[in-house]
Amino acid sequence: MRVVIAEDNALLREGLVLLLTSAGHEVAAVAASGPEVLPALLEHRPDAAVLDVRMPPGFRDEGLRAALAARREIPGLPVLVLSQYVEEAYAAELLGGGASGVGYLLKDRVGRVDEFLDALERVAAGGTALDPEVVTELMTRRRDDPLDTLTPREREVLHLMAEGRDNTTIARLLVVSDRAVSKHIGNVFAKLGLPAGDSGHRRVLAVLAYLNGG
Asked: What domains does the chain contain, in order, with CATH numbers?
């Protein structure tokens, strides 16, 4: 996998380079400031981008803006965004363009090497990888939501879908059968009014409805 890294913290940036190369991936380019990000992505067109949200010169949302711009220029570009804190507005904006091939992790998740690499691979494959704390934060801030029609178990299943978990993993985490998970997901699709069709596409639509409040 060819990856572009955008991170202003030199220690973390070099750590990401070492981590990815040790795992057998190629780091096509690194960027240390906001203005460097988009040109690097357009030049190298990587299999995935790992981007910090806040970068020089303004330390506001330069990395996120570059990610959004790159996805407009390269539709479907897999982007894994790193953030120091749960920033709801940034997560919602990233996901608002479509939840396919996007991830949002807190930086301390990078230290959990297997989880980080698994998240990156899910994003590169077109899935989602959302930090559990991000999902929880977005969920707890929703009120009077159409998603309130879901049962607690259905919300648990959708929560795990938003993290990018597949049916087998969901079944293992909830200690239920694969068949039960499939039934809950079917109920979620029905309650959210998602049309019959490709189940992968409906999973993306369900995650978007969940994170964007329907």
From this structure: 2-141 (3.40.50.2300), 146-213 (1.10.10.10)
